[in-house]
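In the previous chapter we treated chains in isolation. Here, by contrast, the input contains two separate entities that must be folded as one system, with a combined length of 924 residues.
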Amino acid sequence: MSAQPQAQEMMAGGRRIGEVVLSVEEVSLSFGGVNALTDVSFDVREHEIRAIIGPNGAGKSSLLNVINGVYHPQKGTIRFLGEPRHDVDTHEAAAQGIARTFQNLALFKGMNVLDNIMTGRNLRMKAGLLAQAFRFGPAEREELEHRAVVERIIDFLEIQAYRKTPVGRLPYGLQKRVDLGRALAMEPRLLLLDEPMAGMNVEEKQDMCRFILDVNQQFGTTIVLIEHDMGVVMDLSDRVLVLDYGKKIGDGTPDEVRRTQAVIDAYLGVGH
Amino acid sequence: MGESLSGLDTFPKLLLHHAKVRGERPAIREKYLGIWQTWTWAQFAEEVRMLACGLAEQGLKRGDHMALVGDNRPRIYAAMCAAQCLGAVPVPLYQDAVAAEMAFPIQNADIAHALAEDQEQVDKLLEILPQCPTLRHIYYDDPRGMRHYVQPQLASYEQLREIGAAAYRRDPAFLEREITKGAGDDPAAMFFTSGTTATPKGVVLTHHALIDRAKAAAEMEGLSDRDVVLAYLPPAWIGQNIFSYAQPFVTGYCICCPESAETVMTDMREIGPSYYFAPPRVLEALLTQVSIRMEDAGSLKRAMYRGFMNVARRVGGTILDGKKVGPGDRVLYALGDMLVYGPLRNVLGMSRVRVAYTAGEAIGPDLFRFYRSIGINLKQLYGSTETSVFVCVQPNGQVKADTVGPAVRGVELKFTPQRELLIRSPGLFKEYYKNPQATAEAKDNDGWFHTGDAGYFDPDGHLKIIDRVKDVGRLTDGTLFAPKYLENKLKFFPYIKEAVAFGDGRDRVCAFINFDMDAVGNWAEKRNMPYAGYVDLVSRDEVYDLIAECVEKVNADLAQDPELAGSQIHRFLILHKELDADDGELTRTRKVRRGYIAERYAPLVAALYGGDTSVHVEAQIKYEDGRTGSISADLKIRDARTFAPAAAKRAA
């Protein structure tokens, strides 16, 4: 990162929280008679870490799926970078710079770490299939450039030792890291993390927290994350959105949220 | 080494020499973003020049000390030489030491300048800043995570280099003047001993001592600038420093820094070093890995491995020594070389190794022979920080498993009546820093260094070390008790990682055991035995049976030796946690601190000798992140079968 002039509005960790990049307005989503989301509105500002919390079935993953185009809401508008979106599918969302990781990992288990992260570069590859297969013309140079980006990510995530290891043979915590690496390879504007720390031990969680903070600080990536570990959420995020039964019941800084009675009742209070 | 190095009595002078005569040859490589990057000797010299000017500008003066905290990185070595250019003394510190352990050296040497590898090391230095008021400048190599640090002491390596570049433009001749002022008798570096017994001592070594020893060994082995070394052990350890700093500066060979600690195996295969150094523990870990992988291989491969390893065991070492073997064995060995030993050397990254050394601890004879039998010229050497390493080295063709070879050129050896080894050599240290009393105790008026090691010469004049003089004890019936000898015998088994033997002043020998998690874990999986982790395995009778078998084999072996038959191991227990340097149970070079362990686990020792069959234990442990926790467990105690001493007396 270049040395930027010291920002006036220094916020958490010295990052500059910028304009709203994503705004979700009055979104409702239902499957048949089940209302997954009801009139949910919130926004995400540039460079911030935005957490979404809520009990099981509160609609957190549905909300992420709405943002990156897996589901299309029946009602409401989503604006990304100021542009309203209608029926954007996952491809288009990715092309716009929205990357995500998955709760249950979606990696190619038989492929090695390097190749898995390389798939994240796919959208940015310009050479045609034939050119890539035979490595003629600009294809080779292009591949070298992409490889350099991938290597920087490998270095960043400290997984140099596993470059050539098939992902299926790695422990779970490392697989999660590769999943993050693949999302980072897209050089996303907005990174959606679906329970990045689920199933991890304390040490792995600490590592992951550090990587999320580093991504946010070094690359300035805006992050939306779903997480169950309240300690993690309160430590990491700038603002927290709380959902319950598909409705927004709280929104604000971790401290504000912690004090909201509805949140305490619905979530924090029920002995988690 | 066809070239004359006369008059080049300091490391900076040697650097300028290499930059001139082999400027385009590689000096140091590092893998960065998956690609090996090279500094030639000319580039290395340039880097050192800029750094040295920068450090001078920042106030580093002749006689000052500078701390270097980090893993093997080209920039750490550049800074080491830069400090020496100015007549300052680099003090490398162990990068895995906790913050508190770093405070003493920094206070002791009034250190004002430190180079830290990354954020982790910077954090440690900042933590001890209140206790170390002299520390004014902390430079960091890797800027990752450092963006929001505002401490006035901090500056990046790049900033330091820029300061240096500006100073260099103002006065280009400054550095040459400083380098000329240096002399061979100046201190070149200070190494803190790991402190097995008391507070660490700063061992001051001169340019002359290090260069003389590096040269003596390089001449003996015929090292040249075509050799390649992988620098993978802590730079704060004299061994690594000799191989990755002193010797390359003498011969002009290239050192390679691995990408990270986890990638050493891969990096080693990529680099193919020709000159290799490994403490026994590393060699043991490698062999354990090989054995485990062989057990997982198909039956044909397993049979081939077993068959050809038998051939290697019989004749491999003899062939390597250049002695005669029968034509049948020769053909068999050649076939084995093609099918097993060659590929195995390749997997280990040792295909090109011409000379390999092991030292630091006694090596199990079978382990030692294993490497020699597959054609790797592994040899033992003897030395310490105080002697600039090289005291004894086994010459090619005269390699034995239980000695460390005859004295290297220039070294005189003799023994006290208590069998303590004394050394006089050009490589001896100058003094313990600010500790004249310790210096006087270690080095007498005639210049003999008292090693504290007990040993004797074998009939060929090779030195044989048995243990530390102070550790060699007696059982109550007068039987000789050499704890390390027993522990090493136990540790030779792949299932046993650490052992601690007790017996001095007692009626019999008992031991603590740490099993090797990899090997025993694999063994358990093979038997479809589910387990939750180390502590779970400790409680299993099957594991105790496995370890008891090892202990009994050692006993059977000891029974053959009339001197040591009395020190067979009668009882043992498996410790509930792995011994760890962070808990003070091992030194940073991973030697067991027997006295400390006996004290810390006094109830366990009492139970061993008390005849109980189990003992409850509750212990504080320190996690790697600095937090503490406690574990409690019931430990079983087992009796091991002992054997009657062999009737036939063998000459020792």
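The interface with chain A takes residues 32-35, 144-145, 147-148, 259-260, 262-263, 266, 624-625 of chain B (CB under 8 Å). The radius of gyration of chain B is 26 Å. Compare these points with the single-chain example from earlier in the chapter.
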